[in-house]
Amino acid sequence: MNCFAHAAIAVALTTAIATPAFAQAKLKVGFMLPATGTYAQLGTAIDNGFRLYVAEQGGKIAGREVEYVRVDDESDPAKATDNVNKLIKRDNVDVLIGTVHSGVAMAMAKAAKESGTLLIVPNAGSDPITGPMCAPNIFRSSFSNWQPGYAMGEVMAKRGLKKVVTITWKYAAGDESVKAFKEAFEKNGGNVVKELSLPFPNVEFQALLTEIAATKPDAVYTFFAGAGAVKFVKDYASAGLKKNIPLYGAGFLTDGTLEAQGADADGLMTTLHYADGLNTPRDNAFRLAYAKAYKLQPDVYAIQGYDAAQMLGIGLTATKGDAKNAAVFAEALRKARIDSPRGTFTLSRAHNPVQDIYLRQVSAKENKLTSVAAKALADPGRGCRM
Ligand code: PHB
């Protein structure tokens, strides 16, 4: 054998040793998202956004071809542990992507923490996920429930509103959104005079709207989303409340819902980490690509799905495709500036986006950017020890 043949064998051997089996295998992405129920459309937008980013990378993440497994979680916390265990134990997924509903996401975080499976949450704002439940293998591409709520508390206090009623679904997202709103609103001189709620996902709002009318507050703060938000905005207007008692909310109230809400949403002001009309080259390019791929305008959920895929790409590039190396994956994301259509963001110590929260106002079926309500707002990450 000549020296060239020796060299060729040496190169082949080194490549084989340096390329572990997982690097050649497909990357199994487990989507746990709602496909039915009040949040179904939100799940679809997340899925669309994620797949758009992967398609832009030629169908690969960190050199590995992507394969999807999907479970409909129905936004039902009672089924969440079984559903997530199917993905972890039966399907052996490399990474979990999910979900929309905070209660379901809590079960996912618990299972991810126990099994060490990578989890990227592309919506659910449940504060504890980037608080007491924080872990090296758990990340969020979206927001904490605290963020939009807190920003709106400051906005409404600065607008001189004093007496506010809150109304939401009685579950983690609604409770945490209202709590954060109240924290900022009362710190700045406002007063929450009544906290109204109904069980998720009920939409029988009439008795509560009557109570709002009787209380005569300066304004109302709300957390609703998806199909429930459509109905709430329409019922609020039909009850004749809109012209006398201004309605505000976390931006989910009017995101992905404006076609269905029509004129009943006109003028509503909300806070969120995305807005229509940002008019940056990054957002314009994303919106164009999304509209072309899906014949739909993107919303905040599509952005969160897209960014979950970007985050997976950053982490797995650092680990050379190894989904088991959470420490290196996390180190790369902690240092990263994520080039999101919403604007560049970084991750907090607890792995939640540190991001601008925009004040938006609905006009002509768009959540038009009004101003930046809170610049680079970081969730406090209370209770995270990591
Ligand atoms: C949540 O449950 O955390 C949640 C659901 C829908 C949203 C936002 C938050 O639009």
Radius of gyration: 22 Å
Looking at the overall shape, the CATH architecture of the largest domain is: 3-Layer(aba) Sandwich
Can you tell me the number of structural domains? 2
Distance between the termini: 55 Å
Mean of residue pLDDT?
Answer: 95
Q: What letter string, H or E per element, gives the SSE order? A: HHEHEEHEHEEHEHEHEHEHEHHHEEE
Describe this structure in words.
It is a single chain. The chain is of the alpha/beta class. The protein has two domains: 21-143 and 278-351, Rossmann fold; 146-272, Rossmann fold (3-Layer(aba) Sandwich), CATH 3.40.50.2300. Helix content is 42%, strand content 21%. The chain has 13 helices and 14 strands. The protein has helices at residues 3-18, 21-24, 40-56, 77-90, 102-115, 146-158, 172-187, 206-215, 226-238, 258-261, 281-294, 300-318, 326-335, and strands at residues 27-33, 60-61, 64-72, 95-97, 118-121, 138-140, 163-169, 191-198, 219-223, 247-250, 269-272, 346-347, 353-363, 366-377. Strands 7, 8, 9, 10, 11, 12, 13 and 14 form an eight-stranded mixed sheet that branches. The protein has a six-stranded mixed sheet with strand order 2-3-1-4-5-6, with helices on both faces. The longest helix has 19 residues, at 300-318. It is globular and about 70 Å long. It starts with a helix and ends in a 9-residue tail after the last strand. P-hydroxybenzoic acid (PHB) is lined by residues 39, 42, 100-102, 123-126, 145, 173, 225, 252. P-hydroxybenzoic acid (PHB) binds at residues 39, 42, 100-102, 123-126, 145, 173, 225, 252.
